Structures are given as C-alpha cells and as structure tokens.
Amino acid sequence: MEQPESLLYLSHKTLESLALTTKDIIESIEYLLHGRRQSQVWNAPKAVITPPDGRYMMATLSAADDPPFLAVKSLILNPRNREHRLPDINSLVTLLDSNTGLPLAVMDGNWITAMRTAGLSAVTARQLAKSDASTAAFIGCGVQARSHLQAFSELFPLKEIRVFGRGSANREALCQAAEKLGLLAVASKSAWEAVSDADLIISTITLSPELVPFLDARWLKPGAFVTAVDLAASWLKNGMPTFDRIIIDDIEQEAQMSTPLVDPELVSGDLTGLVNGDIAGRCSDDEKTAFIFRGLALGDLALAALAYQRARQSFKGFEIER
Questions:
Q1: Which of 69, 144, 291, 322 could disulfide-link to 124, CB 3.0 to 4.6 Å?
Q2: % of the chain with per-residue pLDDT over 70
Q3: Mean pLDDT of 28-32
Q4: HSE (CB half, 13 Å, CA atoms) of 296?
Q5: Residue 89 sits in the same domain as residue 47
C-alpha cells in the first residue's frame, strides 16, 4: 500500500460532510467482525480509569490486516463539563498503518463514537428487532439518541418516536430531528409511557455515580428490542430475566471486567457470534431481545478506516506534514 507523505486531520464538520450511510457503516463493522473470526482483526479490551471525582477515562485499541489500519481512541467523560458549556464526552481517534506504524490520520472522536455506537446497535437490531418496527422510544435525548434516530430511521419503517429525558433543549432537538424525517414525535410524561408500547427502545442515559436504575424490562411488550447504550445502568437488574435473548458486544472483553453488565447466565452470546452465525437472530415475533454493550474498539476502527478511505477518495481533510 502506497504511503501518503502527510497525515490527515478530520474535523467533526469534515467527517459529517463524508455523508456515510447506515448501510456503509453496517458493512464496515460486519466486514471486520468476519475478519475477527479469521484472525485478521484484533480487538483489545478497553482500558478504563475512574478517578474518585466521577470522571470516566477510557482508551480503545483495535487493528486489522485488511484494511491495514490500527485505531486508538482516547476519551474522557466528565458530567461537570456542562457547567462550562462543553460536551460531557470529548475524544480523539488516531489511525496508523498496521504494518509500518506510520500515522495516517487524527480525527474527531466524538463523531466516531456517536456513529460507531449507532452502527453497532444497527448491526444487532437488523438481526434481533422486528423488521416492521414502526415506533421507537428514546430514553435520553443527547448525541447518541440523535445518531440512533438517524440509523434506525434508515433501517426500519418508523412512523413515530417517543422521547423521555431531563433536558428540554435536547428533547426539543430530538423531536425536531424526527419531524424533519417525517416522523411523529411525542414527548412522553414518564419513562413507562415512552417504552411500554414501543417496538424499539434506545436508552442513552449519561453515566454518573448518582444514576439510579429506573427502567423495567417487564414494562415492554412482546417483540420489543432494546439497545442499552448506557451499559444498562438505567435498567433494573431484577427485570432482566424478562428478556428472551440478551447479546453483549464482546464476551472476551466482558470476562476481564470487574463488574458484569448483566448476569452472565442471561447472556446468549456476543456480536461476533451473532454476525458470524453462531447465534440465531430473532426467532419469533413475540421474543423480547436486548443488546447491552460497553463499546467495542473494533467499531471505532471500522468507522475510522471508512472515514479515512472516503476522505482520501474525495480529497477532504486538512493535510499535516508528517
């Protein structure tokens, strides 16, 4: 592979201008998941630091032979950022050639995080959610909710969304985004009202030491699919056995975590197994299913590689001398 003489900086605005579709993102993630089974893609468990003041610091690492890239993401979540009118989460992704180690790109990690997270949910939802899902409930209305709205509106014949969250500005922004997509948007008065009759439920509550679980899987109707972007921290543990099938992102990563996302006995398998056919997709219209995940470094690699390749093809990004 010919090495460029410079590396690219891809800002949030530039990444958005690439106009990557949900189909593009799903294909990129699934390609790497297949490659992982062939020992051509590697995914390290995330490294986490949790200072006593409530900050959450994380690094992810994934590499592939095809395409020949290595991606590292550094991320900090600090709920106090909002006091300074900053996003709760800020991050950066670096992309290297996985053969030579030469740096290829530096890019906005917030965009990568939002799009890869929605992409991981979309990969799973395509297998576990009902194909005719028409109603989606959003518990939490921030960046992740908006990226999931875009992804799920491309995957399913949505007609209505229901939203429940604490911030009025975020609620209004999410409703407006849904209306621009031609959907009916309803601000629910309670979490139960939002989720009880929804086909798709997306929980994206910001993690904090003060978060008390308040969502109950026993509220859900038969056939519902949940994607718990918030590590299921907002879901009551005693309601989890209600699900007929729970998929997590990575069994190997989960085995190294001090506290499990969910009772391991309730877990049917992980995303690699689902995409490679080791685990069946939805088996009946009445089956209640869930995707509970910490975040998969392979997803960051899939988005970073896709964005870099598209940017090079379209001559976008700021060139930095190496």
A1: 291
A2: 99
A3: 98
A4: 32
A5: yes
